[in-house]
Amino acid sequence: MTCNHIVFIVMDSCRYDSFMAAATPNIDRLGEAQKRYSYASWTAPSHHAFAMGMLPHGSPKEVFASEVYKEEFAQWKDRTGHAEIAFKEFLPHLSLPRVLRNIGYRTVAKVSMPVLNKDTLISRDFDEYKLMKNHNDFAGMIREMEFPDEPHYYFLNLGETHYPYMLSGENLPHISGVHGALKSMDDVPAKAEKQTFDAEQMKMLHQQQVKCVEYIDKQVGHLMEITPPNTHFIVTADHGELFGEDGYFGHGPIMHEKCFEVPFVEGRLS
Description:
Number of strands: 9
Strand content: 15-25%
Mean pLDDT: 89
CATH topology: Alkaline Phosphatase, subunit A
CATH architecture: 3-Layer(aba) Sandwich
Order of helices and strands: EHEHHHEEHEHEEEE
Low-confidence stretches: none
Distance between the termini: 23 Å
Structural class: alpha/beta
Number of domains: 1
Helix content: 25-40%
Number of helices: 6
């Protein structure tokens, strides 16, 4: 049985309305964008859900959650083109890469966020797992990809849409975990001086995220040029982002709808 190649693209921190404001002619070839909701408000737990095979969800009423999950796992049959995938195949490990490896896939992950480094549990069942040296290197990921006869599952975490949104400059506040990539977390004083953005800066950052989506779309176009017809794309985000709404910036320990709204597009080239 011939399985489809799968390319799973996660635009880190890309909120739904940023995606919808962007011009995305290449991603649009895959299908209509949906508003969905992340299972978590920051990178690591959202990616654990992805590793289980769980994608951002809708918000259906009058239905048991177990039925939603059952339907979600069943969709991997269509994505892979392998009719024998069933929920029982995910047990007991609840690992999508493991399920795919068991049916003949080469599983490859390329990630941008240090919190997803290869020593985390998320890397466990991948044949190859790489933390890119550059925070914004979707183009570099594409250069390393190939599509032989063996079906490949590519999982790509993109940093371009994450703060600082491909910007550089002395006027941007230092944010631990982004600047210094976790290792400087302990260096921050317990009572660090409060840093934030004014309204115009917030607006600029939101607009810059939109531009980053458009950059990603151009790179997706380059990727599409090298993918065979039997390639199934998934394009989504791990969580949203706040740009000053109700006094919030960023994501993480925030309970706000904009932190959970994400775009979702999937399909094959048309």
